[in-house]
Amino acid sequence: MSSSNGAGNSEAPQRTRRAQRGPRKTFMELVLSLFPGLDLLGHAFTEQGFCVVRGPDPLYNSRIEDFQIKISAGGVTGIIAGPPCQDFSKARRVPPAGHGLRMLGELLRVIDEARPEWVLIENVPQVPDVMHPLYSHQRLDIADCECGGTQLRRRHIQFLSLAGHTIRPIREFTRPRHAAILTSATAASSHTYAEICRRQGFGAPVALPGWSREAKVRAVGNGVPLCIGRALAIAVSRRSPPDLHGDCICGCGRPIKPPATQAGPACRKRMERRRKWTAAKMAWSVTAEKAEYTPQTPAAVRSQTPASVRSIDGELRHVGSRRAG
Ligand SMILES: [Zn+2]
User: Fold this and answer.
1) DSSP secondary structure letter of residue 213
2) Contacts of 9 (CB under 8 A, 6+ apart)
3) pLDDT per residue as tens digits for the range 159-168
4) How many angstroms is it from 252 CA to the middle of ligand 1?
5) How many A from CA of 137 to the centre of ligand 1?
6) What residues does each domain of the chain span?
């Protein structure tokens, strides 16, 4: 069973399909993968024609704290990153250690050094916004079962763009068969390693000779499922300026049919939640002093944004309120 829209809106207009499937960029894009782990996300981007280089990771005995980009900005077109999510996870049993926020600071430092055209960050729903005054900021959630996979668990994606571009992942909803891959020892013990690899999108078990079963399950289970990775890689290759009359104002990248401003009921709820949380919600951002990375409200970060690079989010909301008026 399938429908064309994960938000449950069966009226997805045809025009926007073409926009979503717009022309791919034809030049080679060099992408730096930060916090790669096994780099399932990088694997999906490579499959779609990006040239992905892997950054440091404790798995390979290297740390982002020791990593520095010294060659001039402009060499790296994009950054993909899956910073550690334990501090932000609902499943956390102990108070946050602060490591998660420190890693977001390191990520912003590398963004500052590399000044890529775009940045794509994957994490859990509770992660703060990662904002930089020079980049537009789009936040959306996406599930494996919306991209051809079988898992329900949602991943939160943040897309930052120097040119103010937006991404529109193509969602083809299928009925989920599995809640998620859980990487805890108890949950993982109920599945074979081969089954976990299969659910993450691999045809055969990923060979990790010498690894314990628990380490293998954690490494594969923590990765971004390949179906989501492919949908994101295609969306990034087709990024384009926001379509103020065609994109949902919630930033999910789904198409709308005017005079509607939201793609479906889930988008309306998302906007309501965002309005309630905005005052208290934290954004981890780079300050004007550049060396410091401090928590601020998203509105405070937006106020530092030069007029030439306005937030997609704010711009769309502005158009939405104009239309509503
Ligand atoms: Zn939406």
Assistant:
1) H
2) 254, 263, 264, 265
3) 999 999 999 9
4) 4
5) 15
6) 2-182+219-324
- Evaluate if residue 33 carries a pLDDT over 50: yes
* Tokens of residue 255, six digits: 């198409």
> How many angstroms does the Cα of residue 268 sit away from the middle of ligand 1?
7
Radius of gyration of the chain (CA): 19
User: How many whole angstroms from 248 Cα to the centroid of ligand 1?
Assistant: 5
Which ranges constitute the DSSP H helices of 238-311?
A: 265-277, 298-304
Q: How confident is residue 288, by pLDDT bands cut at 50, 70 and 90?
A: low
Please give the model's pTM, rounded to 2 decimal places.
Answer: 0.81
- Are the CB atoms for 110 and 64 separated by under 8 Å? yes
Q: What architecture is the 2-182+219-324 domain classified under in CATH?
A: 3-Layer(aba) Sandwich (3.40)
Strand pairing of 30-34 and 78-81?
parallel
**Furthest CA-CA distance within the chain:** 63
CA of 261 to the centre of ligand 1 (A): 9
What is d(CA 322, CA 80) in angstroms, rounded to the nearest whole number?
A: 34
Residue-wise pLDDT tens digits, 109-159: 999 889 999 999 999 888 888 888 889 999 999 998 888 888 888 899 999
Q: Tell me, what amino acid is at 228?
A: I
Neighbours of 22 (CB within 10 A): 12
Distance 288 CA to ligand 1 centre (A): 31
Least confident of 238-242, 306-310, 313-317: 313-317
- How many whole angstroms from 178 Cα to the centroid of ligand 1? 24
Query: Would you tell me how many other CB atoms lie within 10 Å of the CB of residue 125?
Result: 13
The three-class DSSP label of residue 46 is: helix
CA dist., res. 194 & res. 297, Å (int): 43
**For residue 30, what are the CA distances in angstroms to 40, 95, 112, 137, 167?**
17, 37, 17, 21, 18
What amino acid occupies position 269?
K
Asked if 145 and 152 touch (Cβ cutoff 8 Å), the reply is yes
